[in-house]
């Protein structure tokens, strides 16, 4: 089996279900953070909860505290799903273009309905496999990769996606935002990113300024890189 099939996990969207909401659902018995490792017994283990979106606070922090000013820049969200990153970029930045690439047609339709409803004229959603969008990867200034390949593809397909990223994102100064880190993603594939490709941008987290609603550990999992 592939590595990701050996884990028991629930997939959630932190944008819709922040920690306090998850706690309420668990208290009401509508959800659990644990699973039974031996059906019928009282032996339980903690579930691996993975979000495929940033929370509302994480998005605000990303675009107002972590990333540099993005006026007249092109932002690309790979695997845009519900479109949370796109809407936040439209609200918190002066980017010239905000693009989401999403394979699922239902998610694309949902995003386009919200874009139309709120007149987000800078946002564009492209229904495509990112492996076919090498030119878009080349032309984007900021590329966001949030748990985008790890939980949806075989290791072989993940490696192919990373090969496209490595081969396309080569313009000096391009910024890549990842969750988890590049090294953690590639360790699972026994791979390495190219030598002298990117350098990590260290950003400071002033914990006293982080509101209670924001998950500190999730913020700390955000990594920034700049193409050398």
Structural features, described:
- The radius of gyration is 18 Å and the shape is globular.
- 32% of the residues lie in helices and 21% in strands.
- The strands form three sheets. Strands 7-6-5-8-9-11-10 form a seven-stranded mixed sheet. A two-stranded parallel sheet has the order 1-4. A two-stranded antiparallel ribbon has the order 2-3.
- It has helices spanning 19-27, 56-66, 84-92, 105-117, 134-139, 155-168, 182-187, 216-220; strands at residues 9-12, 34-36, 44-46, 48-51, 74-78, 97-102, 123-127, 142-146, 175-179, 198-201, 223-227.
- The chain is of the alpha/beta class and 228 residues long.
- The longest helix is centred in the last third of the chain and has 14 residues, at 155-168.
Give short descriptive properties of this protein:
228 residues, alpha/beta, 11 strands, 32% helix
Q: How many strand segments?
A: 11
Which segments are poorly predicted (pLDDT under 50) over 5 or more consecutive residues?
1-6
Strand content: 15-25%
What is the percent of helical residues? 25-40%
Number of helical segments with 4 or more residues: 8
What's the quick description here?
With 228 residues, this protein is an alpha/beta fold.
